[in-house]
Amino acid sequence: MPFYIARQAPKLWRKICAETTIEISLVAENRKLLLAGIVFQYIHGLAAHGIHYLHRPGPTLQDAGFFLLPELGQDRAYVSETSFTFIFASFVLWTIHPFVFQNKKIYTVLIWCRVLAYLVACQILRIFTFYSTHLPGPNYHCHEGSKLSRLPHPKSAIELLVINFSRGVNYGCGDLIFSSHMIFTIVFVRTFHKYGTNRCIKQLAWLLAVVQSFLIVASHKHYTVDVVVAWYTVNLVTFFIDKKLPGWHSKESNWEQNASLDVAAATSDLLL
Questions:
Q1: For the chain, what is the domain count?
Q2: pTM here?
């Protein structure tokens, strides 16, 4: 067994080197798309941070999900975040699996270009939505009387522009319609459904997305409408990007064809 592992190690290293070479070239070719998508994640976080200043705590609105689902409570609010973290981490690991495994079907950079395009389009709609109508947050720290329900007036522009993403995710208020957690979840699951190879895991991924929806409502992180709107909005947006935008598929196909040729060339060079 040690001899077999030692013999396979050079092959694995050559595989990693070949994939890294190609992915770096794809990063260089698509750097503008990637940079724009990453920068917009900050803009989206800034918008969510800004709406917290405008949040006005009030009575929780009547909600069918709150009535039908058992409440997790503050002590078990971590269950929803744990589920989301598992989905997020699983997707990230899947996107980088071509660096190690031989059953290659995707290119990491191209997958993330597509994912970022989905996210940006959905987040633009989300920003317009939660700034249009301000709803009282249903989460426990957003209730009236909580010190976290409103942010103090910023003393400087730096305080407004510097974002604590962890605090915003866990203690944000006001950015309700529609759920950001569900945007990421549905985008990840749809992308895996399109490019993944294991049918059982695809079905499990959709099941996890449904479970995540219930957990978000049960933990009172969002109203039910936030989750419902996310389900049809994200699916419609991704369908539009996939089917309607001219040139997207042709460009992506060219990238994949060129990358395939480069992978073959790089692999042969490394084997020599």
A1: 1
A2: 0.83
